[in-house]
Amino acid sequence: MKIKNTLTALAAAISFSIAGSATATDIEVTHWWTSGGEAAAVKVFAEAFNAGGDNWVDGAIAGSGGVARPIIISRILGGKPMGATQLNHGRQAEELVEEGLMLDLTELAEKEGWKDLVRPSSLIESCTLDGKIYCVPVNIHSFQWMWTSLDAYKKAGIDAPETWHDFVASAPKLREAGITPLAVGNQPWQTNGMFGVIQMGLGGIDLYRQTMVDRNSDALRGEKMAEIWQAFSDARELDDPENSIQNWNDATNQVITGKAGAQIMGDWAQGEFQVAGQTAGTEYDCLPGLGIAPALDTGGDAFYFPVVDDEEVTAAQKRMASMMMSKAVQVGFNLAKGSLPVRADVDLSAANGCMKKGLAILDNPDNIVSAGVQLLSADTTGQLEDLLVEFWNDPSMAAADAHDAWATIIEEAD
Question: 303-327: b or e for each residue (b if 16 or more CB lie within 10 Å)?
Answer without folding.
Answer: bbbbbbeeeebbebbbbbbbbbbbb
